[in-house]
Amino acid sequence: MGREDFCYVADTFRGNDATRYGKESEPEATATYENLMANEVTQVGFCVHPLLPWLGYSPDGVIFKEGKPAILLEIKSPVSGQEKKAAELAADKKLRYIKKDGENLVLNQKHQYLSQVQLGIVLLNLNLTHFVMYSKVEPLILTIPRCDNHIDMLVRKLQAVYFKHFLPKLAASV
């Protein structure tokens, strides 16, 4: 049986120590972000864009400005952040999704988290994400701007997978 014989409709991943820690620390990470940035975070649940109804996204939060969604919030809570600053973890190359660009720390353009936040940006029709690497010692917040080139490539790939592979398998299984 090959990979093409599988059609995943239900989520079978039940988590691990890292995902459990991330889930457990999210309220504390959100409160820390709110205090540091003086932004109120709103939980919005699962979001679907009306023009891309076959895609969805569950943001960690959204910041509203003047009554309109303005900033996507994405939180990552590495277990090692219990004892070290997020910037130290990044500098020590303990976070594969962060790299150094000159003197700045940036989201690694080759990591899947870039696509994750760009998908959230397009589905919520926003222009930026605050990407939080939560650490109990000292978190790090990166501002990730909208990248229409990446979004176009990502949506095309997801559309191809969904309509050429997933949907036909789903329809055939009914």
TrEMBL record:
InterPro entries: NF-kappa-B_Signaling_Reg, PDDEXK-like_dom_sf, Restrct_endonuc-II-like, YqaJ_viral_recombinase. Residues 10-119 form the YqaJ viral recombinase domain. GO terms for biological process: DNA repair. It comes from the Eukaryota. PANTHER family: EXONUCLEASE, PHAGE-TYPE/RECB, C-TERMINAL DOMAIN-CONTAINING PROTEIN, YQAJ VIRAL RECOMBINASE DOMAIN-CONTAINING PROTEIN. This is YqaJ viral recombinase domain-containing protein. It comes from Haemaphysalis longicornis.
